[in-house]
Amino acid sequence: MLRLVSPQTAAVRAVKQALSVKMDKSFNTYCRLLSSKKFTVQDSLPHLPVPPLEQTLHKYYQSIQPLLDEEELEHTSKVISKFKAKQGPHLQKLLEERAKKKENWLSDWWKSQAYLNFRSSVVINSNPGLLLPRQNFEGLKEQLKFAAKFISAVIDYKIMLDEKKVPPEKSGMQPLCMSQHYNLLCTSRIPGIKCDTWQNFSEEKPSHIVVICNNHFYLLNVYGKKDRPLSIEQIYQQLKLIHSKSEEAAPPIGILTTENRNEWGKIYKKLMKDKVNRSSVELIQKSIFVLCLDQSVSSISDDNKTSVFAGQMLHGGGSHLNTGNRWFDKTLQVMIGSNGICGVNTEHTAAEGPPVIALIEHVLNYCYKNEERVLPAVGIQDPIKLKFNIGSKMLEAIENAKKNADSLIDDLDLTISQYKIFGKDFLKSMKLSPDAFIQVALQLAFYRLHQEPCATYESASLRRFKYGRTDTIRSCTVPSYLFTCAMDDSRVPALEKLQFLRQAVQTHKNISNDAISGQGIDRHLLGIKLTAIENGMDIPKLFMDTAYTKSMHHKLSTSQVSSKYESIMFYGPTAPDGYGVCYNPQSAKIGFAVSALNTSPETCSQKMTSAIHQSLSDMHKLTSEYQMAKL
Q1: Among this protein's residues, is 216 annotated catalytic?
Q2: b/e 24-60 (16+ beta carbons within 10 angstroms → b)
Q3: pTM of the prediction?
């Protein structure tokens, strides 16, 4: 809504301009002016800065100290000094020139480097999964009814996006970039042989979703005449019709999207030569989102069922279950099983976790209110089955993809847990940053298991800048290492341990603030490296150094993705001998998802989960006992 504060405001001038044009054009002109970028918070967001080179190199040197021995550290100090004296200043100047010409000097590079150039399978390695609270229903009828509500809720959110009514988000008083929210729907990754592409089809105004049931693909138009969305009951009837036509399983063509990207790019090129196939694939890509009606998973023991359910959202459970009932290139996939299990899988090019959570929380709020907001539409179209011409070569590719997907899935070791002794409210009462406290607990847990510190990645949002994505919080610091060494040393007094803990927490908070303020280390260094490559220069030795290699081998890849619901996001480890750790701190508990690979003899997700819980409890006891002593 525009605030007409004074006659000199841009808003007032726009209204006057709109009212001054001819009547037959005035309404459209007015709408166009109101929806233009200059009336959004987006236009006021600052551009991502390029930090001072000397500052970044100083922080980099500090960050590698826990990871290197004295000889390595001395060598790296010389490498840094040489870089600072020779190549560094010139590359810094070139990067600053790029920053002057672009709204965000990093965003295009990051999309390519982090996602589209990534050639491993997106399954487990890139796409995160999100397990939602288990719903209270059983059986086909209730599955389809809940799916209909879910679809209606997403369309309700899409209408808010289309009308620019999604409330701008803030971090404290700082407005955040909302562009990622507009990338979640009507978008898709598109495979290539050497590099993928990504496309947003919103301007084509797609009116359909794609429903996958028993490996069959159906186009479901979710709007009737005059762009009126279907009611929940109308969607439910459409889903019934789709399910009734999908009793026999089709060849799982969707499993091809699990292949490594080079292989899938080759297969995709052949698939798209056929006009029928091309039409079907393009309709999937242009759909608002994909809904997967899943087979239920049976015969699961109570102690690991949540982890198994999470696996359904991350990878589908294997070729014998639901992995073929997917299209992993689609930005938003919603999975709903007949036993109340539901969740989403997101292709990561489009957005980070928080915008996904914003959409999902809107959906769950909508579903739990249990009210029909939409009147029945007229002009409903029956679902259309998307056809594929699959010859022997394509069937052979599907069989190969099944084997590769099953191997990938069998290697994943995933544990979901709830830590219930305390949550973020206790930590705030102790005047401790919840995220920093949890990160220090992760350092302690890893140290206890492996007797060494490790390079750690924590995602830091750059959304206070226009088109901002992420930077790295290097959670392994000298203070966190000192604390992990002292915590189990009986010679260190409790008060001294607490001082080490508070220093580690404060240090983490400081580097986090630096990272979200555009003063981080890793994206700046990446920019320096890519500047050298783009200008045909030699890659600086700084990036060939043992220190850089060690600091980028993230044995802990971590992220906080908060939700008011008991939802948890998860992904695979980024190092073969490491862990992926995602957590949701709530008022009185903390949800954890820990992943590792079975092929690594060094890691075990259950052991790491236990170590995290124990570390939190020990740190809780340390802070609580000191607080009691003060009283």
Answers
A1: no
A2: eeeeebbeebbeeeeeeebeebebbebbebeebbebb
A3: 0.91
